[in-house]
Design a protein that fits this description.
By secondary structure, the protein is mainly alpha-helical. The protein folds into three domains: 123 residues, Rossmann fold (3-Layer(aba) Sandwich); 114 residues, Serine Threonine Protein Phosphatase 5, Tetratricopeptide repeat; 175 residues, DNA Cyclobutane Dipyrimidine Photolyase, subunit A, domain 3. The chain contains 21 helices and five strands. It has a five-stranded parallel β-sheet, with helices on both faces. α12 crosses α17, α14 crosses α15 and α16 runs antiparallel to α17. It starts with 7 loop residues before the first strand and ends with a helix.
Length: 467
């Protein structure tokens, strides 16, 4: 048996955990000691929204605490461009390798290529082990060898391929940990986020959800679209930041087979699908996959325009449509939004306000703590009808009917739109129809849905008639 004689670096990116972490396991196996390192990349910091930045700080704090188990020095944090920071740290440490989970997003791939080249120039290897996905992007292809463009056949292939079981956990007190010279102290996390971020909280929350008698696995398929029931797992931040790996989630679901478990596993497959799509279509970050939609007539929210006023009202939850406003206010205040509301609010922006999906995607990324470029951009394109396997453009969510169907008793609306707390049930979904109009402080609808639906379909018809 060959025993390692040089240290290694575990470069933390989207894997803030010690359990089920192949990259960390590889670093431990290859090194006489391990430096856990997070790099505050100025490129990513510039694009980090309010929610993601706050969650990142809380995640750094939580992982640091977990790594200090057994008296270790904790997580080292450095600032700068990774292609400059990693080679400098490796040289000072005498490390032979840097270990990461593979990144498949457009910027992540460019960054990792630059880091690998810079490390190689100094004789150090960048080793990617595992990924943040159940099935890594690029793994599955159709019979022609081409990537899947439609979810259903991708899902069949995903099921047939299967997902590996969880990797063994790393015991922090059994590893010799190192600290980087000149490491910095990150900003103190928001106490509200510090209480709920990190691997330990995510694991407890996931286990608690699995053990629910109501609004848990058995009810997921039936209730996950009902925001007032809160049957959602709230897993998205844990998966986005790697507090849990999808393998762990899928393994736990496999032990509890049910329609609800299958429905949730299908959502995990959607996550893998969109990461795969973005791998093959990196331009989808900012451009519609269906190229003809580039000619779609849209209202540009330039400063001072009516479209800009409407975009602001939408972001602030001041559209006059209760369910839309409740969803947007949940996102702004909590950094998270129920999945059904993401569809409803997205449809409203694109098809009632005629504003391009990319503006909505930017707002979401500004506020969401689970903001993920593949999931965000491609779900927006699904709503807008211009992406891979999209919803048909003519599918326009009626915000009133959605409200009556998915929040019939107004439990969700009343929680996030307190101005409507005392409105009688028969007027709650259309408060402008109440005697005297909506309560003081709540706006009238900024548009009339029926008219804007016709306008959206007319613009789509004009697009289809273009040569």
């Amino acid at each position: 048996m060959r025993f390692p004689t040089t240290p290694t670096i575990w470069w933390v990116r989207r894997d803030f955990r010690l359990a089920d972490n192949p990259a960390l396991g590889a670093a431990v196996d290859a090194g006489a000691a391990v430096l856990p390192l997070f790099v505050l990349d100025p490129v990513l910091l510039r694009s980090a929204g309010i929610g993601r930045r706050a969650w990142m700080l809380a995640s750094l704090d939580a992982l640091d605490a977990d790594l200090r188990t057994g008296g270790g020095p904790g997580l080292s944090v450095l600032e700068g461009r990774p292609a400059e920071v990693l080679p400098a740290v490796a040289r000072r440490l005498g490390a032979a390798s840097v270990h990461v989970s593979a990144d498949f997003a457009p910027y992540g791939r460019r960054r990792d290529a630059a880091v690998a080249a810079a490390l190689a120039a100094t004789g150090v290897e960048l080793r990617a082990t595992g990924s943040p996905y159940g099935v890594a992007p690029g793994t599955l292809t159709g019979q022609s060898g081409q990537p899947y463009a439609v979810f259903t056949p991708f899902h069949r292939a995903w099921l047939a391929h299967g997902v590996h079981g969880p990797a063994p956990a790393v015991a922090a007190d059994q590893v010799t940990w190192l600290a980087a010279p000149d490491r910095v102290t990150p900003e103190a996390p928001d106490p509200a986020y510090a209480r709920v971020a990190g691997e330990q909280h995510a694991t407890r929350a996931w286990r608690d959800w699995l053990e629910r008698d109501t609004a848990g696995p058995a009810d997921y398929k039936r209730l996950h679209d009902v925001p007032g029931a809160d049957a959602s797992t709230h897993l998205s931040p844990a998966l986005r930041w790697g507090h849990l790996h999808p393998r762990t989630v899928l393994a736990d679901l496999a032990e509890r087979p049910s329609d609800g478990a299958a429905a949730l596993a299908r959502q995990v497959s959607w996550r893998d699908f969109y990461a795969d799509v973005l791998l093959h279509r990196p331009d989808a970050v900012s451009r519609p996959i269906k190229a003809e939609f580039r000619a779609m007539e849209l209202d540009d929210p330039v400063s001072g325009s009516l479209a800009a006023e409407r975009l602001t009202a939408w972001e602030q939850g001041r559209t006059g449509y209760p369910l839309v406003d409740a969803g947007m206010r949940q996102m702004v205040t909590e950094g998270w939004m129920h999945n059904r509301l993401r569809l409803v609010t997205g449809s409203f922006l694109v098809k009632d306000l005629h504003i391009g999906w990319e503006h909505g995607a930017a707002v979401y990324m500004r506020h969401l703590r689970d903001g993920d470029i593949a999931q965000n951009q491609l779900n927006w394109q699904w709503v807008a009808g211009c992406g891979n396997d999209p919803a048909p453009y003519y599918r326009v969510f009626n915000p009133v009917l959605q409200s009556e169907k998915f929040d019939p008793n107004g439990r969700y609306i009343r929680r996030y739109v307190p101005e409507l707390a005392d409105v009688e049930p028969e007027f709650l979904h259309q408060p402008w129809t109440a005697p005297g109009g909506p309560p003081e402080g709540y706006p009238l609808p900024i548009v009339e849905h029926a008219a804007e639906r016709k306008e959206a379909l007319a613009r789509y018809a004009a697009l289809r008639e273009r040569p």
